[in-house]
Here is the input.
Amino acid sequence: MPSFNIREGGALPRRDFKADTVQLFLYNAAIWNPHRIHYDLSYTQEHEGHPQLLIDGPLQGDWLTQMVEEWLDGEGELTAFRYSNRQAAYIGEVLIAEGRVTSCDGMVAELSLCLTKQDGITTTVAVANVRFT
Here is the structure.
């Protein structure tokens, strides 16, 4: 079992994320995503109708897995992860990552995670399963 207390309903430490243009460019280059809505502001506004560059859905999922890995702190492993993007998020917005333990049975737990904008709108929800070492 991990050295920290795991209980159903327990909260993971909150984390704030704020992407910048360099992070978006590098992330999209790494995943071979050429969609211009992540790096070309004039195209994004004029052709796609968005007010700002969009933060990738997969990047938001990666932020949530990062939050879980940091919480585990080497005392467990992420065994399953699924996420769903629900709302667009834009460059310059702060996304607040939060999570709770929804069930815990011995050496395994299920977590409910979300990313929420500062105005309270949820952009991404996820469920993670972890096994403690």
Remarks:
- The chain is about 25% helix and 35% strand.
- Residues 57-72 form the longest helix (16 residues).
- The mean pLDDT is 95.
- The beta strands are 15-17, 76-85, 95-105, 108-117, 122-132.
